[in-house]
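The record is given unchanged here:
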Amino acid sequence: MKESNVPMNKETLTAKLVDLVEGRETPESWKNWWNEHELEVETLLNPGEFLKLKPCKHGFKWVPVFTSQKGAVAILEKNGVKCNSSHFYQEQYLEELDAFCKEQKRQQREKQKEFKDKHPAWFKQYPKFSKALSKILEPSDEILSAATEAEIDRQEELLKFIFPAKVREFFLLSAGIHVSTGLTIMLSGMFYVTIHEEQYCVLGEFWKEADGDQLLLRHGEETIWYYAHEQDKVKPLCNDMTELLEKKLARYLHEN
């Protein structure tokens, strides 16, 4: 008789939990069994036990069965059922995690090498910032190609805002960057904001103090301003874009 035709009761559930605890399930067999019997299991367990046993959704193959095993151990111990807990799922999860970390490091090295190979002008114009950036780049980080003069002009016209000379110099190297440690500067993402009745052009985000803090520009100035949203304060940050990159951001990336 197929397992799916076996009536679900305390006995059959206990037998299944013993199989799980002792390592006789695979991620696939446990997921399939759960999908078929979830409603029945819910009637046989209290809400806390059910939630601990329920396989979690996870990108790693072995995490759902490993976490369910922990829930099964607790249920069996509560009911005085003795069994030998297997370390197999944990070992498989650790192998999977190790492989994932190695692949992430490989992709990171590749991303960093690609940045150095593709952007020699960065290291010439912003040596400190580029060196710091090249060491922390993650696979998901974005470094856009240079913007054209025409693209920069169009954005200025759209915003009715003339970019400081050194900001324009930056965009002629890259139309934008997004770094997961908390830095985003995108030509296409700039917009106006009014803070305390003063109008600013938002250059991007810089999470110096908190998530979402912004880099700001004002008409006719090279100065880069900083909006700390938790304090609701605008502060002068540095004299110009080059100082922002070479001093403030280079130090920030090095420390993070």
In short: Strands lie at 142-143, 176-179, 183-186, 191-195, 198-206, 214-217, 224-228, 233-238.
